[in-house]
Amino acid sequence: MELLLDKNKIPQHLAIIMDGNGRWAKKKGFLRSLGHENGVDALRRVATRSAELGVKFLTVYAFSTENWSRPKTEIDALMSILVSALKKEIGTLMDNNIRLNAIGDIQSLPARCRRELSEVIEKTSANEHMTLTLALSYSSKTELVSSIKQIAEEVKAGRLLPEEITEAHVAKGLYTADMPDPELLIRTSGEYRISNYMLWQIAYSELYFCPKLWPDFKEEDLDLAIVEFQQRERRYGKISEQINS
Ligand code: IPE
Ligand code: IPE
Ligand code: MG
Question: Which end of the chain is less packed: N or C, by CB atoms within 10 Å?
């Protein structure tokens, strides 16, 4: 697969909905938490491979606002796995020159998660090869509402007129203000939905749905997704002849 990959057409920003940990565990007769633990291994593989290929931003959906409705035992397990993964993977991040970032309602996370997150974010802040962003307690609709509130404040203060509001104002208020929009969004586990992930940012992303459960996702599955992405014609509303002239 590597042979077919065009190293000059690697997406700058890759977004992933890492789904299927629970089903992976269930199939094997394990506790769901073991699925999440194996999900960390998949993320390590994918982050390392993405960095190697030259992806600049990798943004992964790790915990949604809606996931707070899961049983408390599962939420506790997920938060513990987050803390231990952060402690354990600092070496991987440093070795691959990856900067860690987090988006979402970080304040809603338990104190120990916030502490560990800020520590790793701080320690990796000078790394510049790739930015790995964890979307944690993330909801795209909440993110958009927050951007709209910031705009409303500007208008209220008389610094902006309603007719002056542009797409750029909305984008500037999102957590992803300093990133390009993802060119490619991958969702694993055979689900065909977006589940409140980066609704604004994926307006023109290529969508790739993979039937594999996230803990089974390997480097070659990422390569395959990128090869398919590279074969798509991104028309942005135009017709094929315009793109190719
Ligand atoms: C994705 O796997 C991880 C999180 C949502 C935290 P799931 O836990 O959703 O796994 P399935 O979809 O139940 O198999
Ligand atoms: C989306 O997966 C959120 C994450 C991967 C963190 P879910 O498993 O929560 O999504 P739904 O509920 O199936 O849409
Ligand atoms: Mg799921």
Answer: C
